[in-house]
Write a structure and sequence with these properties.
The complex is a heterotetramer of chains A (about 130), B (about 90), C (about 160) and D (about 525).
Chain A (H helix, E strand, L loop, with lengths): L4 H19 L3 H22 L19 H5 L1 H4 L3 H32 L4 H9 L1
Chain C lengths: L5 H23 L8 H19 L1 H7 L2 H26 L33 H27 L7
Chain D lengths: L2 H27 L4 H29 L2 E4 L17 E4 L1 H24 L6 H20 L3 H19 L6 H32 L4 H7 L4 H18 L7 H8 L2 H25 L7 E5 L2 E4 H26 L3 H25 L7 H36 L15 H14 L6 H16 L1 H26 L15 H19 L1 H17 L2 H8 L4
Antiparallel strand pairs in D: 1-2, 3-4
Classes of the chains: A mainly alpha (about 130), B mainly alpha (about 90), C mainly alpha (about 160), D mainly alpha (about 525).
Chain lengths: ~130, ~90, ~160, ~525
């Protein structure tokens, strides 16, 4: 029923984030745009690892709380674990890049007094 | 409409076409090949002793990625401290 | 960021232990339930940042030196890479899980389903979880503390 | 198993782990005092240098070495696909690691005196060690997602280092531009890796290389990977961050940034030749009777961009007044030469009569990586020395420095001749290889390349005249020579340049030749992981 709705959501997030980075003039909005692209790509990684099973979908690959019939036919009933591990890494990368960019934006505001990238570039020219 | 925005619009539209095409062509819910993940799901308990499939990958099968991730956090923290080093009372 | 009102401070005092307990639980049971070093560390760090917001960054900055926090962070990172080097020394390969089945602690292989005796399993993983948890708590808290304190100084308010 | 075999067995992992361990220890050790910290960093770097030498000797004697993290055998029992992360070291990665360890040594020795009176130095050395470790990781790894993680570490660390002079507002802006562009590039690379994982459920480069059948998604993944990596390597349409980043960072940081850019160039080679190596001969469409294959399209695309890069790099270099930005634009032109060599090899891949010329072009391109790194590195060290002595970067303020900075002038002349490819220096050897082979493929390429190289010579002679010769400037009268360790760093590079220039075949035969062969055919790259399966 839901065909590839998640992938359309992924593309929407990536394009919105790209729009914010390319066309917005405020520095903080550019940083927000990059984190939107980041979460879009993370969603793409997660949705690649989904596997449909039975009538109510795949089960998380954790054996402590998995229902008994899911554990019996184990590999087919469980969702792929590798993309989830990759997304963990990519989320932490997003946090690190965000922290660095925001500290640079604070310094740019202290030096140039404005958050508008066009004004900053003009001030930087002369 | 400066040249910069025109170039940005062209770049944006090319990428938009690429991404929309990939989204429409991909099939959700039935991955083509899954043998690496099946191996991991079946061998988590007796090979690494954990019940959680994700944590075995994060710390044992692909532990080196997590070491890279820890260095990324370490680099970001020392980068931020280095950038704010002139902040004294 | 200046100090919050008395009510907010007392409430955050009450709430802080519960957030810490939950965060440490998520770190400790990383190899059984979903979660682990990074997620649990982020929860505890959010508890600390709640205190930072409640008490104002100027007061917290005097109390906690950033150099001591970065020492904690280096120790966490050393714990993690040290466990990897121990894997090289004992288990023969870098990042080898040498405690499963033949180690002294954390060496049992768990059974499916949530039984209480499962904590003592999964070899190297709990050690790595603890060190990464310490590292994430100290790291995230230092970032927000330094940014908060810098923004409260005169020169940043143009 | 005595300790030497043990060290060779574990050397790929230790080459990345030792700098990481040093980076984690530096904040603790720098609490004692500065001398101990500098000594500690140098000792750890020399251990890594020893490991690089051991691994290099081992790979050149008995072929590709695969190191599996956490397990022993690449393929777990009863599986055809590897599960764990693997380091795969062949002759090309050894070539790149040698460049990185040389740059790391020179940068640390140079920064001992160049940044002596700066504050925040313990964090500086931590981040420099992390950058060195991440460049090593990018060049050694055999796993695609692991490459992305190390690429991201090199992004963050080089952005923090570019913003080292926090009191200068231009360097903060340069760092912000750099982090924005490289994080978007890295996200495109991650999207491409996710696409490839979705198709083949494999992240290992060798497994991907053997199982790729160039479907629709592989085309998109190839496009995204090439744009992301070309953005990091500084190809024309996305090169705007490079002059600011190289120009505003301290000179010792710029040396390692050049190494990081070369690592992205190596990754581009690795992706297009090893992972997509088997599908380069896929026939895309037919024109008349001749069939247009992927390598023709990719080759012409890279060649066109290379020519534009060279022209833009040289012309912009003419216009600059800031010495460091001028050298940065010259660096862009040099990257254009490497892409020229790679593009001509791609174009000449399948037709028999041009095969030898194509392979010579690839050898010239790879040899040019190490030459360019040394020449541009030397020029940046000279620019740093001038800044250290006179606190002046714009050219029209300088003059008559030759009187009391004799050694720096000699090093500048050597660097000047090397960059523009004059005979005694190493630039000539590799550029000659590139000119010969591209001339056979398409004469216009060689003509444009030679002209731009002469223009480059004109640019730097202008710099020589305005900065070093010329009349005595009153306020530079008491300028004294730069301290010993900076001269030593520059001297080492100058000697290496002259040695490479006088005996180029020594380097080409036993260093560049195996690297080019390792890159040209990916068959033994695949078989060493999948065990003869492919």
């Amino acid at each position: 029923m839901i065909y590839n709705l998640p992938f359309i959501a992924v593309v929407a997030m990536i394009l919105i984030g790209l729009y914010a980075v390319l066309f917005k003039r405020n520095l903080v909005k550019m940083v927000i745009g990059i984190s939107i692209i980041e979460s879009g790509v993370n969603l793409f990684l997660i949705t690649l690892g989904y596997r449909w099973w039975g009538e109510n979908g795949g089960v998380a690959p954790i054996f402590t709380s998995a229902p008994s019939e899911a554990v019996k036919n184990a590999p087919e009933s469980m969702v792929l674990p590798v993309p989830q591990a990759l997304t963990l890494t990519s989320i932490v990368i997003g946090v690190a890049v965000l922290a660095l960019m925001l500290s640079l934006v604070m310094h740019l505001y202290k030096h140039y007094g404005t958050l508008d990238i066009i004004k900053i570039r003009r001030m930087n020219e002369e | 409409m400066s040249i910069r925005t025109i170039v940005a619009i062209v770049f944006f539209s090319i990428l938009a076409v690429f991404f929309v095409f990939t989204a429409l062509m991909l099939s959700f819910g039935e991955p083509k090949k899954t043998d690496m993940d099946d191996y991991i799901i079946m061998h988590t308990q007796n090979e690494t002793g954990t019940n959680s499939g994700v944590t075995t990958i994060v710390f044992d099968y692909r532990g080196f990625d997590t070491l890279g991730e820890a260095t990324i956090l370490f680099a970001a923290v020392s980068g931020v401290i280095m950038i704010f080093r002139r902040v004294k009372k | 960021m200046s100090e919050m009102s008395k009510i907010v401070r007392t409430l955050s005092n009450i709430l802080f232990p519960f957030i810490m307990i939950f965060g440490l639980y998520v770190i400790a049971h990383g190899h059984l339930t979903p979660g682990g070093g990074f997620q649990g560390g982020a929860v505890v760090a959010s508890g600390c940042i709640m205190l930072l917001v409640a008490y104002g960054s100027t007061w917290v900055f005097e109390k906690i030196k950033t150099s001591r926090l970065s020492v904690f962070e280096s120790l966490g990172a050393l714990g993690f890479i040290g466990t990897a080097f121990f894997g090289l020394v004992f288990g023969g390969w870098f990042f080898n899980n040498f405690l499963v089945r033949n180690g002294i602690i954390f060496n049992i292989v768990p059974k499916t389903g949530s039984t209480l005796a499962n904590f003592n399993t999964a070899g190297v993983l709990p050690l790595m979880n603890f060190s990464v948890g310490v590292k994430v708590i100290a790291g995230l808290f230092v970032i927000v503390l330094v940014m908060g304190y810098a923004s409260s100084l005169k020169e940043w308010k143009q | 198993m005595n300790w030497f075999e043990l060290l060779t067995l574990h050397s790929p992992a230790l080459i990345v782990a030792v700098p990481l361990l040093a980076a984690f220890l530096t904040p603790l050790i720098s609490k004692i005092n500065d001398i101990v910290r500098n000594l500690f960093v140098l000792i750890m770097l020399s251990i890594t240098g020893l490991l690089v030498a051991i691994l290099g000797y081992d790979v050149f004697t008995n072929g590709i070495r695969v190191y599996v993290f956490g397990g022993g055998v690449p393929l777990p029992s009863g599986m055809t696909l590897p599960v764990r992360i693997m380091f795969e070291v062949d002759a090309m990665s050894i070539f790149m690691i040698i460049i990185t360890i040389v740059l790391a040594f020179i940068s640390i020795i140079y920064s001992l005196s160049y940044l002596k009176n700066q504050d925040g130095l313990d964090k500086y050395y931590t981040i420099v060690l992390l950058l060195i470790a991440s460049v090593f990781g990018m060049e050694l790894t055999g796993d695609l997602f692991n490459f992305f993680v190390f690429l991201e570490i090199s992004c963050i660390t080089s952005c923090a280092l570019i913003a080292f002079y926090i009191h200068k507002k231009e360097s903060i802006l340069a760092a912000f531009n750099y982090i924005v562009i490289s994080s978007i590039g890295a996200l495109f690379i991650l999207f491409a890796i996710a696409l490839l994982y979705g198709q083949y459920n494999a992240l290992n480069m060798a497994t991907l290389a053997s199982s790729i059948e160039f479907t629709f998604f592989d085309k998109i993944a190839l496009v995204l990977l090439i744009t992301g990596l070309a953005m990091k390597a500084g190809l024309v349409p996305m090169h705007m961050w490079l002059p600011d980043a190289y120009g505003r960072a301290p000179a010792s940081v710029t040396i390692i940034l050049i190494g990081a850019t070369m690592a992205s160039f190596y990754a581009l080679l690795r992706v297009s030749f090893t992972i997509y190596g088997n599908s380069l001969a896929v026939e895309l469409n037919k024109v008349g009777n001749s069939s247009i294959k992927l390598n023709m399209i990719l080759g012409t695309f890279v060649l066109v961009l290379a020519i534009i890069t060279i022209i833009v790099g040289v012309l912009m270099a003419l216009k600059q007044s800031n010495l460091k930005k001028m050298i940065a634009f010259a660096a862009i032109a040099e990257i254009g030469y490497m892409f020229l060599a790679v593009g001509s090899w791609l174009v000449a891949l399948n037709d028999p009569n041009l095969a030898v010329a194509g392979f010579n072009a690839l050898k010239g391109g790879i040899f040019h990586i190490i030459n360019d790194v040394l020449d541009i590195g030397l020029l940046f060290l000279v620019a740093g020395a001038i800044y250290y002595a006179t606190k002046e970067t714009s050219l029209n303020m300088m003059g008559g420095l030759a009187r009391n900075m004799k050694y720096t002038t000699v090093f500048f002349i050597i660097g000047l001749l090397a960059v523009s490819g004059m005979p005694p220096m190493n630039g000539f050897a590799s550029k000659l290889l590139i000119y010969e082979s591209t001339y056979l493929i398409n004469p216009i390429l060689a003509i444009v390349a030679v002209l731009c190289s002469i223009l480059l010579l004109a640019v730097f002679v202008k710099v020589l005249h305005s900065a070093f010769l010329g009349p005595e400037i009153p306020d530079f009268k008491d300028v004294k020579e730069v301290p010993k360790s900076m001269l030593a760093a520059m001297g080492v590079i100058a000697c290496v340049i002259i040695i490479f220039g006088l005996f180029p075949d020594m380097i080409v035969n036993n260093l560049v030749q195996p690297a080019a062969e390792a890159l040209a055919n990916n068959s033994n790259y695949i078989t060493s992981v999948l065990g003869g399966g492919a």
